[in-house]
Design a protein that fits this description.
Blueprint (H helix, E strand, L loop, with lengths): L7 H17 L3 H5 L10 H8 L10 H12 L7 H11 L1 E2 L2 E6 L6 E3 L10 E5 L21 E5 H7 L3 E2 L4 E2 L7 E2 L3 E3 L2 H17 L10 E2 L10 E2 L2 H10 L4 H14 L5 H4 L3 H5 L2
Parallel strand pairs: 6-9, 10-11
Antiparallel strand pairs: 1-2, 2-3, 4-5, 7-8, 8-9
Helix pairs in contact: 1-3, 7-8
The chain binds calcium ion (3 copies).
One calcium ion (CA) binds next to helix 7.
GO molecular function: endonuclease activity; hydrolase activity
Protein name: Endonuclease I
Keywords: Endonuclease, Hydrolase, Nuclease, Signal
Length: about 280
């Protein structure tokens, strides 16, 4: 597959096509969806509601989760080796196209400084791959929606810990904290982490030989296909709504790599609709 990232004008043109199609030819299903009262919703998301999310609109709870599972499971998959180049696009520093932004430390670092040395960046599985034991075979272990560049040392400190508040400051990653059984990312990416975990829960329901991933409210989940703590992740999602960087990487994954979306970046309110 191509790892070429379309220019911004190309991506805007694609969105415009979607927008025009959505306005000019509403389908029967869209016409049956209750009209939105949110007149402030950006045009791009409105266009997605009329197209990509059409079968989810008007649903809530388990019905919404099931509809989203079907929608986002229609995707292209990348290999673990292709993840390196993909992350150079999805996590590119908007102020320096030679660099990526590292998830936990927030550091801007050369795209070329990847590998296994302590100060390199590598491929962090935000849904730790041991939780459900999916490894790096093409599937959940190579899904760009939860893979992020991180400092090798910080990645190792996070390990496969569940997420929760509390602990000691993480060296070289200001604002992150950890203790024996959990990891707390810095405030700026708390919501990003929550929405990545919840994407994985909706996307992976036990098909294709992989475990049914689901959040729970525990720490110390070990190799069980669960990540906690759900109540804390819900708080983080509310406290840190999607910003331009997170929205852009969702769009780049959609346009250039997997052609599926993280619904919780487009519709953060769906978190509370599915997990009460
Ligand atoms: Ca803890
Ligand atoms: Ca954020
Ligand atoms: Ca699931």
């Amino acid at each position: 597959m191509s790892t070429h990232r379309p220019s911004r004008s190309r991506r805007l043109a694609l969105l415009a096509v979607v927008a025009v199609a959505g306005i000019a030819a509403p389908s029967v299903a869209a016409a049956n969806t209750p009209a939105t009262t949110d007149t402030n919703r950006p045009t791009a998301v409105q266009a997605l509601d009329d197209t990509y999310y059409q079968d989810a609109m008007g649903k809530s709870g388990p019905e919404l989760k099931a509809a989203l599972h079907t929608i986002i499971s229609d995707q292209t998959k990348v290999s673990y080796d292709e993840v390196w180049d993909a992350l150079k696009s999805t996590d590119e520093d908007p102020d320096n196209p030679s660099n990526v932004i590292l998830l936990y430390s927030g550091r801007s670092q050369s795209k070329d400084a990847s590998g296994g040395n302590p100060d390199d960046w590598n491929r962090e599985h935000v849904w730790a791959k041991s939780h459900g034991d999916f490894g790096t075979a093409t599937g959940p272990g190579t899904d760009l929606h939860h893979l992020r560049p991180t400092n090798v040392t910080v990645n190792s400190i996070r390990g496969n810990k569940d997420f929760d508040n509390g602990g000691q400051d993480v060296p070289d990653a200001s604002g992150n904290r950890t203790d024996d059984d959990s990891f707390e990312p810095r405030d700026q990416v708390k919501g990003d982490v929550a929405r990545m975990i919840l994407y994985m829960a909706v996307r992976y329901d036990g098909g294709d030989g992989f475990a049914d991933l689901e959040p729970n409210d525990n720490v110390d989940n070990g190799s069980a296909p669960h990540i906690g703590r759900l109540s804390v992740l819900k708080e983080w999602s509310a406290e840190d709504p999607p910003d331009a960087f997170e929205k852009n990487r969702n769009q780049v994954i959609y346009d250039s790599f997997q052609h599926n979306r993280n619904p919780f970046i487009d519709h953060p309110e769906w978190v509370d609709s599915i997990w009460k």
